[in-house]
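Field reference: sequence -> structure
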Amino acid sequence: MTRALNKLSALAVKNAGPGKLSDGGGLWLYKRDEGPGQWVLRYTMHSRRREMGLGSVQDVSLKDAREAADRWRSAVAKGLDPINERERERRQAEKRLHLLEDVAKDAFESRKAELKNDGKSGRWFSPLEIHVLPKLGKKPVGEIDQIDIRDTLLPIWHSKAETARKALNRLAICLRHAAALGHEVDLQATEKARALLGQQRHKAENIPALPWADVPAFYASLSDGTTTHLALRLLILTGVRSAPLRFLRLEQIEGDVWTIPGEKQKGRKDKTTDFRVPLVPEALSLIEQAKPLARDGYLFPSIRKGVISDATMARLMERREMAACPHGFRSSLRDWIAETTNTPYEIAEATLGHTVGGKVERAYRRTDYLEQRRSLLELWAAHVTKPRQGSVVVP
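Structure field:
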């Protein structure tokens, strides 16, 4: 049996002409008129003759070809088909070598439809891009464990608690995405890392808001008719976020209803649904006062170009040494509703543009409570503009 092996020499391989040369044990050199030649292993599996390519003579030496042939002959002896085994190993190697940065980008692409403006703002991907991928991006996703994650997020776990929490959540999504692609990953790695990182010392701070009883006095002080004063007044009356108000366009207003496009609504997964805001008489009066100041279709333009910035309204309040900020007027309105009215929870939340209930519940509830919200905002306007009359309890 030994004599039947290793028939060829390196020189014979180099000088071989066209044809098929046997090295023994099923290892053959196939040489054509053109090209360097190909190593082939012949074997029989389940009474079937098969040929397995082992590479070209240019890339695989005689010694390497013999070692490969020995390995695959051993597989045949164990009842394993070498061709099938090699393909299985190749697939496993691909899984091990799939990098986290590739999985993260693919996960991001698959979720763009759920994100504001197709994720162009970068808020979904940036926690990964800034804090995770520089350290773990080049690592195969199947090799990432809780220790890797802990060491990556530990520097910001307390100092940038919210960012670290988002990065950990995004990473968990990436691991689930990798599993769906067929990669072998530890789906519990992020939860294990969370346990290792421990409780965050950082505590979320509520947005400072003006008590609802003090809003009328502040509203009355916004009396000079400038863009900033008019914008703040309309912000208070409507309870909307500052971004939709700053980018308010005249064509969004029809009669006494202002329709905010769905893609402009923060925090809404369904970006196809617009949000209607009822405009009470006081709000309509403010809009008429602002129209002469409008530019390029925007009701509240800045002095130079574009629209008024959120910082402009915030600085006005800072100059008055107020702790509250413009966004806080939403809290002022919500507290007023809770403390002085009997408004149902769904209407109160709808007034602030919040999504209420699960997907199925929302599918059956088609109303946006426009008229109920109009009545509520009329009472809010009465409170804001006539502080001495006090608040009214809504039955």
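Note: The mean pLDDT is 86.
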